[in-house]
């Protein structure tokens, strides 16, 4: 194992799960993306202020 | 009436359902402002994920023996760079998918001669101690054949697993010419920091071409170990990861996935798995191409195109419309 004397290599925490390995920051972003997707599905559209008009 | 004709007719008809006002410029402006504010605030809080670049100086100080052995292999033409092939040199054929060899077809477009570019020219570029200067003169005065004999003999002796095994002090006496002195000279030069600037596209005002430093670094274990430590290796989902405690490129997951399969990570030296591992990039490129084609042609693929009917998520998004439709039906 080499030592990095003047060049620090920083790293995140990783969650190993069998063949899958994911960093905690990546997992957070993926969970936020899933949450946003679910919100986009279930949050109602803003209501129209004006009465809907119809084309003739 | 055919389905295609009916489709065209529908596209020409006026929409008779409900309509609502929609200001795309307003929405676009709001989105840009919100994202810009988020970027500024998050950058202020979390800073940048960029670690300081690895340097040849750092390599020479942290792992001088590794750099020494790599320098010898550059002189002997046995390093990864020397045997890489196009676009750098003709030392190998590059990756192939059967008869498809794009690297070979494109040819040498960024010539890199490891012996001269990584060792001889950098040593010649600066004032050297007397022994290194004499070794350089001996090297440049010798024939290519003699150079090859010296370097190959020393490279073989240095890496003999039953002999020196990488330890220069244990190499048996032999006819190695100026090779050991040149290797020592280059490691000392790198440790002083002089080599970093010289390999960085010399003669150019803006040094943005780091090809040679990266190739030279890549021939040793310093860069490789740093990548392993930072979880950036291809076979550990490195394509998705970032240095430091930052999220990386999750959208590369479909690409990174293939590199985790044992068939593309085999230690076999022959057979199908060995071929796939040695040519993993081009095979995975093909697989990704097929996946993209499936995505592009989704509306035309029976079964796959019916997924929205089986999982009607759109009915959840447009539930008002479908509720109204059900009520009026």
Task: Compute the CA-based radius of gyration of chain B.
Answer: 29 Å
- Total strands of chain A: 2
How does the overall form of chain B come out from the CA principal axes? elongated
Task: Assess the beta-strand content of chain A as a share of residues.
Answer: 5-15%
- Low-confidence segments of chain A, ≥5 residues, pLDDT <50? 1-6
Helix vs. strand class of chain A: alpha+beta
Order of helices and strands of chain B: HHHHHHHHHHHHHHHHHH
Give unreliable regions of chain B as ranges.
Answer: none
Helix proportion range of chain B? 55-70%
End-to-end separation of chain A? 77 Å
- Beta-sheet strand percentage of chain B? under 5%
Name the helix and strand elements of chain A from N-terminus to C-terminus, one letter apiece.
EEH
**What profile does the largest beta sheet of chain B have?**
none
Oligomer: heterodimer
Total beta strand runs of chain B: 0
Strand order of the largest sheet of chain A: 1-2
Query: pLDDT average of chain B, as an integer?
Result: 91
Rounded mean pLDDT of chain A is 76
Biggest β-sheet of chain A: count, sense, barrel?
Answer: 2 strands, antiparallel
Question: What does it look like?
Answer:
- The complex is a heterodimer of chains A (56) and B (329).
- Chain A has a domain at 12-43.
- In chain A, strands 1-2 form a two-stranded antiparallel ribbon.
- Chain A has one helix and two strands; from the N terminus they run E-E-H.
- Chain A has one helix spanning 24-42, and strands at 14-17, 20-23.
- Chain A has 56 residues and is of the alpha+beta class.
- Mean pLDDT of chain A is 76; it is low at 1-6.
- Chain B is mostly helical and 329 residues long.
- Chain B folds into three domains: 56-229, no CATH class; 232-294, no CATH class; 297-329, no CATH class.
- Helix content of chain B is 56%, strand content 0%.
- Chain B is built from 18 helices and no strands.
- Chain B has helices spanning 3-12, 24-46, 56-62, 64-76, 102-106, 114-124, 130-141, 144-158, 179-191, 194-199, 211-218, 221-229, 253-260, 272-278, 280-296, 307-310, 313-317, 319-328.
- Chain B is elongated, with a radius of gyration of 29 Å.
- Chain A binds chain B through residues 1-14, 19-26, 28-30, 33, 40-42, 44-45, 48, 50, 52-55, and chain B through 14-16, 18-21, 51-55, 57-58, 61-63, 66, 221-222, 225-226, 229-231, 236-237, 240-248, 250, 260, 313, 316-317, 320.
